[in-house]
Amino acid sequence: MRNLIILLFLLFGAACQHQQRVETKAAIGSAAEKEKAVSPPSGRVAQQVPMATSAADTLTPEMLALLRRFDFAPLWSGQRSETTTPVLDGFFGDEHRRISFVFAKIVRDSTQPQLFYVRGKNKFRQAVTPFSGIIRITTLVDLPGHGFLDMDSAASEAYTAKARFTFLEQPGASGTGTFTGTAFLDFFIDGDGELRIGQTVMNPDTTAPARGAGVLYRGTWTSAARRQAKPIVIANDVLMVAPEMLPQFGMGERNAQINPKYARLGWTEMWENDEWWAASPKPKLSL
Length: 287
Description:
The chain has helices at about 1-15, 60-70, 75; strands at about 90, 95-110, 115-125, 125-145, 160-170, 175-190, 195, 215-225, 230-235, 250, 255-260. The termini are far apart. The radius of gyration is 20 Å and the shape is globular. By secondary structure, it is mainly beta. The chain has 3 helices and 11 strands. Helices cover about 10% and strands about 30% of the residues.
């Protein structure tokens, strides 16, 4: 918390140097917000969006100020570049079968900076299913002493955003359900004042909430028809969470190859060339 307060003072100071007016509150301490049902912005996310179901937030005024200053929406998708579409792979069910997620759109709420509306698709086996939902940040915590990729001396300390998520798969499709759980986003602010994902390379960081993957979703999928529940873990870098799921998952240089014995669970190539999340092009007429 101390580091977060220092970071905010630095940001406010920089804003004053650019003659930007910054208003601060004298009261410091815990400030819990009552849960509100918020409708997503029209036309930007799917209409079937479940409402937040978590208890009161544990966001202090300092935390809310940071969330208003920076838009965390791109980071929740694992996005590091505007030219690429990140795919978050993970483990589904007790067998840890492969499941993949793409977040096509994440939009921050206009009045609650901790609330985000989500739209995307997931792939399990050969089935591609649209989903929509919410991510709601519940707290921010310091990560003292952590060093992440591209984090230099000019960067801030590291932090983690903890959130609750609910993703509702498209109703009516066969075998659909709802994903719920807790999400972790490790981040820092670089020397240019930009928000960055906190990731490591080669080996997992077991002391970081996102395990060095930067973004980690951990929860449960519940079947809409049978109410059957299955565990799910997805991450921005699946190699960071694989050791706790499947032993000897990675092989070769930098563990870039997947152990062939897990091919039966859908784990073949680490990176797939097909853009399974893209809409199928309409066939052209031959005249």
